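Moderator note: this is an archived Q&A kept for reference. The question asked for a predicted structure of one protein chain; the sequence and the answer are reproduced below.
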Amino acid sequence: MEVSRKKAPPRPPLPVAPLPLLAYLLALAAPGCGADEPVWRSEQAIGAIAASREHGVFVASGSCLDQLDYSLQRRLSRLYRDQAGNCTEPVSLAPPARPRPGSSFSKLLLPYREGATGVEGLLLTGWTFDRGACEVRPLDNLNRSSLRNGTEVVSCHPQGSTAGVVYRAGDRNRWYLAVAATYVLPEPETASRCNPAASDRATAIALKDTEGRSLPTEELGRLKLSQSAGSLHFVDAFLWNGSVYFPYYPYNYSRGAATGWPSMVRIAQKAEVQFQGQAALDCGHGHPDGRRLLLSSSLVEALDVWAGVFSAATGEDQERRSPATTALCLFRMSEIQARASNCPSDFETSEQNCVILAENLTSNCPEVIYEIKEETPVFYKLVPDPVNNSYIYLTAGKEVRRIRVANCSKHKSCTECLTAADPHCGWCHLLQRCTFQGDCVPPENSGDWLDISSGAEQCPKIQMIRNITVETAVTVVGSFSPRHSVCVMNNADTKKDLCRSKSRANQTCVCHIPTRATYKDVLVVNVMFSFGAWNLSERFNFTNCSSLRECPVCIGTGCAWCKRERKCIHPFTACDPRDYASNQNLCPVAVEKRPPSTISGGGRFEGNKTSRTNQGLQVFYVKSIEPQKISTLGKSNVIVTGANFTQASNITMILKGTSTCDKDVIQVTHVLNDTHMKFSLPSSRKEMKDVCIEFDGGSCSYVGSLSYIALPHCSLIFPATTWISGGQNITIMGRNFDVIDNLIISQELKGNSNVSECCMETYCRFLAPSLKSPKVRTNVSVKLRVQDTYLDCGTLQYLEDPRFTGYRVESEVDTELEVKIQKENDNFNISKRDIEITLFHKENEQLNCNFENITRNQDLTTILCKIKGITAANSIATSSRKVRVKLGNLELFVEQESVPSTWYFLIVLPVLLVIVIFAAVGVTRYKSKELSRKQSQQLELLESELRKEIRDGFAELQMDKLDVVDSFGTVPFLDYKHFALRTFFPESGGFTHIFTEDMHNRDANDKNESLTALDALICNKSFLVTLIHTLEKQKNFSVKDRCLFASFLTIALQTKLVYLTSILEVLTRDLMEQSSNMQPKLMLRRTESVVEKLLTNWMSVCLSGFLRETVGEPFYLLVTTLNQKINKGPVDVITCKALYTLNEDWLLWQVPEFSTVALNIIFEKIPENESADVCRNISVNVLDCDTIGQAKEKIFQAFLSKNGSPYGLQLNEIGLELQVGTRQKELLDIDSSSVILEDGITKLNTIGHYEISNGSTIKVFKKIANFTSDVEYSEEHCHLILPDSEAFQDVQGKRHRGKHKFKVKEMYLTKLLSTKVAIHSVLEKLFRSIWSLPNSRAPFAIKYFFDFLDAQAENKKITDPDVVHIWKTNSLPLRFWVNILKNPQFVFDIKKTPHIDGCLSVIAQAFMDAFSLTEQQLGKEAPTNKLLYAKDIPTYKEEVKSYYKAIRDLPPLSSSEMEEFLTQESKKHENEFNEEVALTEIYKYIVKYFDEILNKLERERGLEEAQKQLLHVKVLFDEKKKCKWM
C-alpha cells in the first residue's frame, strides 16, 4: 500500500495525519484479531451508520434501522422499513464486492438540525423502497411517525450509489438536501427493479427543500449528466468553505469495472444548484495501471485536507494484488477549489478545462490500532464518536465496534511515547505513562501532559551539571509545571544522604554536591525528585568514568568531562581550574550517519533481481520464492530459487509490509545447493509484504511479494460417510487451503496419520485411508496442520464395506451391453471417480464397464454401467462369469444372479401353488379369529372411553367454574386514528402508514394549490353525487375500488361530517330507488356500492365514542375470558386446535392425558425493568402437555397480572432454564433430546418431556446470542396431534396407519358447551350493552339514521314492518357491530389468533340470529355452531324487538341537535389524518375516468361551474406532475 499526497507550493509541513486517514489505511490493509471492545451485531449486513451528538448511534442493516446508545450496549428503538418484525436483505446483483461491501437497502442516514435553537433534531433517511424514498424523522425515537417523505430521491437500486448532505442556506435560512445518486443502472436484470421518471434518467445531482408540511413536490435545481457519461458511482458528500463536494468515479455496473479516473464535482452551498467545477483525482503513482476505484473519502477539517483511499482493479484480466494496489492519497482542499473548473466530460456545461491532480509524497510510519479476527470487508466509512473523540465506530460485515483511536499504552517511556508522533498520545506526569489527554487526571492541568509537539527532548530527566569549581548541581530538565518539590541523593552502598533539599514555590528543587576528596569513593548514587503526586528517580554509576574516552558518553552517564585534558572524571572531583571556564557547556551529541535506504517511500524495494558483491566479482541471481502465500503463523520451509547461492557467506532475507515501518531480517536457514536455499519465516499479521534477498551485505535483490493470509477454515466435508477399506475421494470445501502443511486423520486411541492431499485455495481432495476397527460405526477427526498448529476440520464417519448381492447382464443391441449390479442399501455417496467395474467372460477375457448411474430402490441399490463398441453382445452376455468391482481400496467379485431353467419351473410351480393355497387358507382362518378378538377388545375399550368421557363431561358442566378475572387492568384501546384506519381499510394495511403522519405541527398556509382546488370541488354536492354515480357505472370500477374510494372520501371529509352526512342521505335515497324496483329487503345487505361502504365508515366515526365508553370494557372482558378458558386445557401449537372452544372445527378431540404443574418462576433482573416494586418470584400454573413456548406465554401473562406491567422483553428474547440443585438446563421446544416419530417428524418438547414436577424452579433469562422472531413450525413437526391420528392426516395430506388409542370426535362435543357456560355471563353482558339505551337515550347516529329509514319507508308507502326491520338490521348490526365483534384488533391493541377468530365467528352468528325475523328450524343433524346458542336466541330476539321499539318511541332529534353532534365529532378529529393524501388518491380515480366524468358534467344542467372547476384542477395537477417529488 502506498500513501501519497498532492505536493503543494512551499509552505510549513503538515503534521501527522489525524485518525480518520490512518484508520482507513489500517482497516483496509491489516485485518487481524482484536481486543474485547464493545460490539453490536445485527441480523443483516450493515449498509449505513451515523452518529448524532445527543441521540446515539444509528445503524441501518437490511431493511431495519436501529438506534443505539453510544456504548453499543443497548438498543433504544428500532424501525422496520420493509416488513414488520423482519429485517429483510437485498438480493446481491452482478457487480463484485467493490466498490461497496455489498448491496444495501439504506442509501442515506443524515442527522441534522442538532443544537439549533428552538427546534428538535431530525434524521433524514433514504431507502431503495418506494422508488428511492426519503423520510424525515425525529432523532429522539425511530418509532415516531415520519414528519415528511418523498419518492425518487435516492437510488432505488440496492447496488446503486447515493451521497448527500444537509445544510442551511438562503434568505430564509432553510435546510436543504443536496443529493447525488445513480438513478439508472444499465444492466437488464435491474431494469424492472424501479423505473424513475424520464426526467430523472440524466440527473446526477439534485437539490431539495427539506422543510414544510411534507417533502417538496418540486426540485430547486439539478445537475445533469452529459450524453457521453456512463454511470457514476458517488462515494461521499461534504461541505467545505461555502461549497458542496461530491467525490465519485465512473463505473460500469455490468462489468464491475471502473471506466475512468476518480473526480470531485463542486456546487455552491446555496438555495439553488450552481455548478462550480470538476477536478479529476489521480492517485496512480507507483502502480502501472493507475488506481481508478475510490473506496473511501474523508475530510480532515482541522487541516483543510481531503483524504481518499484509492485502489487498482484486480479482476481476472488484471495483475494480481500487490502492496501498491491500494493507496491513501491526500489533497489540499484549497488547491482543489482553486484549480477545479467546468469539465464537459461528465456534466452538461459549456467550458472545457479539466485538471488532473497527482503527486507522490513519502508517508510516515503507519500503526495498527485495531485488527478484526474475521475475514470481513471493512465498511467504507468510519464514524467518530461525537461524545468522546478518543473513540471511533468501526463497521465490518454485520458488526459495529467502538474502538480507541490510538494504542497509547504500548509506549512504555516518555521518549518512546513522544517519538512515536501519535497526535492522540502524550506523556502523563501524574500517571507516569503514555495516555490520551482526557485520561490524565486531573485533565484541567495541561502542564501534567506532554503532547508530541513538545518533542522527546522535553521529557523530564535528571542531569548533573558542574556549575563552579567547588560543587556539582543535580536538577531536573524538561517540560513540566514548576511546583513544590523535594530532591534527595544518597550513596547506594551506604544509604547515606549526600544531599536533601526542598524547592521554593513554583521552582524546581536543586541538589548541590560539594567537591570533596571523600566523595571520590562514592561510586553509585540514587537520585529521586518528588513532585507530590509523582516521582522521578535514576541511578548513576561512576565506576568507569576514567575509562570513557568520548564526551557524549561521559556526560550521559553522569560523569564530568575535562575539555582541555580530554578526559572523563568523577563528577565530585575537580578539573584543572584553568580548564573549568570552558567546562560549563555540555558537549554536543554526535549524530550517526546512516547509509541511504534501499526502500522507497511507497514501501516497495527498488532494484533488479541481481546482486553483486562489494568487489564486483560475483553475481548472484534470484528467480522466485515458493510458496507466495503463507499463514499468519509463518512457515519453516520457504524455498528461494536462483543462482550462485553457495558462493555467498552471509545471506539474509528482508521483509517489508504496509502495516509498519519495521523490517523483518531473516538469516538463511540452509543453502541446499547452488540454485536453492531455505528460509524459516516468522509469524505476522495478515498483510502482503515485499521480499528482497541480500548477499554478503550488498544491495537487496527484489524477489516479489509474499502474502500472509488467515488460517484455513473448513465449511463442508463431502461425502461425510465412507467405508472401512478406504480409498474414496473426499472433498473439503472452505478457504485458504493453499497454506496447509498436512492433512491429518485422527482416530481415537490410534493417534494421527498423514494422508496425501491435493489442495487448492477453496478445496482439498484426498483419498480416505483404510481403517481397521471392530466397531460398526467409527468417527474420525479430519485436521489441518499449519506449522505446529492443528485445526479441526470436521468428522468423517466410517461404516462397514458395501455388500453386493449379484449382477445381471442385458443386451438390447448387438454392440452394447448393460450390466446392473445389485447392492444392499447404505448411506454411501459413490461417484464415478470412486468406482471401477470389469466384466469377466468366457475363459478369462475382461471388458471394462463404464459407470452410468446409481438408482436406490426400497430394498436394493442398482449400479448401472455400460460396455459399448463391441460385437456379439448376446454371446458375451451368456458367457459372462463374474464382475469385479473396485471401490477405492475395496475389491470384490460379484457372482451373476441365478436364472432358473424352464423345466425347473414346470416341476416346482404346481407344488408351490398347492403349498400357497393351504398356507393362505390357514393364515386366513387365523387372521379372522385374531381380527374378531381385536375388534372385541377395541369395542370394550371404546365403551370404557365413552363412559369415562361422558361422565367427565357431565361432571365438568356441573362443577367446573372459570375464575374470571374482574380486574384486568387498563383496557388497551387503540387511539381513534388507528381504529378508524383498521375499519376503513381492513384488507389494505399498506395505506395505514401514509395516513398516520403527525399533522399537528403542519403549516396551514403550506397547503398545495392543486389539492386546495380539488377540496373545494368535492365540497360541491352536485358534483360529488354525479362523480360517484359516474364511477359506479364504469365496468372496471371494481367492488374493491368502490370501498377504497368511500374510505378516501371519508378521510377527506373527516372534518366536514355535516356535509358527509348530507351526501350519505342523498346516496341512500338513490340506492332505495334502485332497490325498490327489485327486492327492498336486500338493500344494504352487502357492500357492493360506494354508499354502503360510506355508511359503514360513517357508523364507525359516529359510534366510536359509544363503543369506547359503553361496549369496550365488556367486549375486552369477553375476549380475555375466552382466551383464559381456551388456555385452561391443552392447545396444539401446530394446528392451534384446543380442547376448550366454541367452534367444532377448532376442537382438539385427540386430547392426551394432562395435568396441571405449579412452577416457581424467578425473573432475571434486566435494565428494561429495574423497578423496586416489581415482584420477580411468581408461582405459575402450566400443563404438562404445554410446549416450552406456551409455557413462556403463560409465564409472561402471569408477570403482567402480578405486576400490572410487562416484563420488558419480547418472547423471542428470553429463555427458560430449569434449576435442579446447582445444575441448570435450558428448556427448548426442539433440542437433541426431542423425540423423532415416523417419517422423520419431530415432536415438540413439553413440560412433561423434561419431567418437570410440581414446585420446580425455573429461571427466566435474557438470551445473549442473536435471537430470531417467532418460530413457524413446518409439516415436519407435531405437538399433541400425532402423525397417526386422523386430524393429522388432514393437515399433512398423508396416510398413516393408526396405532393410537381409539377416540371419537363426538365424545368431546360437551367441551363446546363447557366453554359456552364459562363465558355465558360475560357474553350476555356484552350483548345487552350493545342493545341497551343508557340513560334512556340512544346514540345520536343510531336514532338519526333509524328515523331516516322510517321516514323513507313512509315516503315510499312501504307498510310491511319487516322491510324497515331488515333495513335497520342491515345498516347497524350487520354493517357495524358484526365487523367489530369478529375483529377485536380493530378496537384493542391485541393480536387475534386464528382460534379466537373461529370462536368469535360463532358468537357473531348468534348475535345476527338474534336480529333475524326468520324462525330457526334446527334438527339433530344441524351444525353444532347453530345448536350451541339455539335455546338463547328466542330470548335475544325479544330483547332486540324491544330495543328497536324503544328507539322508535324516543322523541325525534332536531336538525340542530344532530348538526351540533356532528360538528363536535368533526372538531375531535381535526389533524388526525393527512387529508391531502386522501385527496390525491381521489384524484387518481378522477383522472382515470376523466373523459367519462367530463361527458357526464356536460350533459347535466347546472354543473357548468363544476365543469370549469374540474378542468382547472386538472391543469394544476398537470403542472405539478412536471416536478419529481409528488
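Archived answer notes: The first helix runs from residue 19 to 29.
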